[in-house]
Amino acid sequence: MLSRDNIDIKKLPKIDLHRHLDGSLRVESVIDEARKQGIDIGDYKDIESRLTAKEKEASLVDYLKCFDLPIKLMQTSQALERFTYEFFEDAYNDGLVYLELRFAPVLHTQKGLSLADVIGAVKRGMDRATEDYPIYGNIILCCMKNLSQDQAIETIEAGKKFIGKGVVGVDLAGPECEGFAHKFIDAMKLAKSYGYRITIHAGEAASGQNVADSIELLGAERIGHGVRIFDNSNAYGIVIDRGILLEICPTSNIQTSTVERMDAHPFIDYYKEGINVSFNTDNTRVSNTNLSKELSIVFDMLNLDKNGYKNLYVNAVKSSFASEAVKNKLLALI
Question: Any one cellular component term from GO for this entry (predicted)?
Fold first, then answer.
């Protein structure tokens, strides 16, 4: 895949800091798991369309409907481990050298697995993949905005024993309403006290004020999406002054109607104005993408050259939740 100056994007060392496990499953593996588990998922010919969002959905909520089928199948330790292994294998095959997987353990307890069981299964899948392939990885635990703070705390408590052993961070994901941060102040304070790093989905389906709240009230070090900081000067200033990284997911932002069209995406201005941004997939299956495709868009929109990409890569490494030892190895690759 060539772009500006005939740069082979697929061969570049790449980093994805924002990719959801349940939105990045292989179609053939979904079908295979359904057969193995004896779960009726309807006409197999229809599966790919059920797992993939339209080029433009009405809203984030409509986009999230594509997760219903994956969640149904991700209720056993075996399936979770398998899907995680394939998640990292696919990333490696696209040229990634580091990947932060995020998922919500609470969504995978419908058949009796404990939160710790779920996290353990995903960790095993990641550990096997990173042993088999030269790719580094970490796990971010998502708490759901549409659930209670107590449920968020349960996830934080369950993941505590895995901190430093594959789990590095905590997130708030799911449907976004105005002012959600006020609901989770105690949970994120607890997470920070345990040593979790914090990234929060904000400013995607609601205003930039959610970004400011996520940073000031919840201690977010990074923001998932953060597209709408343009509508809030306070949020904009905080992001610039503190060097907060925005985890931009170009294709997903179009599909969720967060952005009307790619050539009007705010990341173009954010990049030019010196805001710390990284470019990510969000969900490879739901958005029918990979990081090479996303970077091809970015190269074209920003007229990037090799030095421009190197700066993006270095900033992503520095903003990642990897250990200093892993960061140094990643920096050596560029």
Answer: cytosol
pLDDT digits (tens, 9 = 90+) for 262-298: 999 999 999 999 999 999 999 999 999 999 999 999 9
- Terminal Cα distance for the chain, rounded: 18
| CATH code of domain 11-332 | 3.20.20.140
Condensed to tens digits (0 to 9), the pLDDT of residues 202-248 reads 999 999 999 999 999 999 999 999 999 999 999 999 999 999 999 99
- Can you tell me the distance from the alpha carbon of 214 to that of 273, in angstroms, rounded to the nearest whole number? 22
Q: Which of 81, 176, 204, 294 is catalytic?
A: 204
pTM of the prediction? Answer: 0.96
Q: Are 57 and 64 in contact (CB under 8 A)?
A: no
Neighbour count for residue 97 (Cβ, 10 Å): 22
- Are the CB atoms for 140 and 320 separated by under 8 Å? no
Per-residue pLDDT band at 180 (split at 50, 70, 90): very high
Q: How far apart are CA 24 and CA 74, in angstroms?
A: 12
Let me know: does 244 contact 278? Beta carbons within 8 Å. no
Nearest to 221 by CA among 168, 162, 147: 168
Tokens encoding 314: 């270095």
Token output for 168: 């590095």
- At position 292, the amino acid (one-letter code) is S
Distance CA 182, CA 90 (A): 37
Say how far apart CA 69 and CA 73 lie, in whole Å.
7
In degrees and rounded to multiples of 5, residue 133 shows phi and psi of -130, 150
Token couple for 56: 């433009």
- Cα within 13 Å of Cα(314), Cβ side: 8
Between CA 62 and CA 207 the distance in angstroms is: 19
Quick: pLDDT tens for 27-84.
999 999 999 999 998 888 889 999 998 888 878 888 889 999 999 999 999 999 999 9
Q: Residue 295 has which token pair?
A: 């970077």
The domain spans of the chain are 11-332
